[in-house]
Amino acid sequence: MAEEKTAICFIDHQKHMVIDGRYLKDLEPATRNLIKSDYPSAKVTDFICDHDLLKYQLMRVDGMVRSDVKQTRKINRRLTRAMQSDDYEIVDVNENLEKTLTFGQRVSDAVARFGGSWGFIGVFTFVLVAWMFVNGAGIFGIKFDPFPFILLNLALSCIAAIQAPIIMMSQNRAADRDRMNSENDYHVNLKSEHELRILHAKLDNLTQNQLPHTLEIQKLEIEILGQIRNELDQLHRNQATFSGDNQSDEKEMKTGQKTTPKE
After folding, report:
1. pLDDT digit string, tens, across residues 126-163
2. Where are the bilayer-spanning segments (predicted)?
3. How many domains does the chain have?
4. Cα separation of 219 and 53, whole Å?
């Protein structure tokens, strides 16, 4: 059977089989940098046994976990500050306007509401037709405003002159309502945009850092399990060798006792 290759670990300076360790050139750059931080003179051609390599692999795993936790906490603090920094309270527009509503504003709303309805159009049309019919046809001998209905024109002008500013008062209140709604929407959108940016940063950190780190940690775990398996195999080999030596010694002792001449 071919002799198994051996190498000397540059840390414990003991001879190990090549399958029980790794050369530095075969390691991940991050793990190799951790080793070189403790042993600056180490070369890529140097050999390290699995027992000593396990320490630096665990350090690498711990470093990645701490880095991910630190970054996650940083993003969570930013998100918390963003949610707490905006002290603007959303205004209930309807409730606020109801509290500040005066009698004149209630009247203007009622006039504008009635003036913009089909009921007003129907009533006003009936009054105009009745006015012109009564004064034009002379029913019951009544002609208080004969053609061309100057009194009707005066009444319409007065109604229009009074109704226009009343409707404008109601429109001003509608403008105030729209302004307050727009202000609420602006602050809500601003806060939502800020939070969405932080959430995007959190997702980017998850996809670009944490997921690759998770895969790398799983890879290191598999390597560590393989190293533990090799350690157990080495213990079994040593135990088997030790048992074989003991059996050989016992056989030699028994053989020696049989061949000893009696006095």
Report:
1. 999 988 888 887 776 778 888 888 898 999 999 889 88
2. 118-142, 148-170
3. 2
4. 14
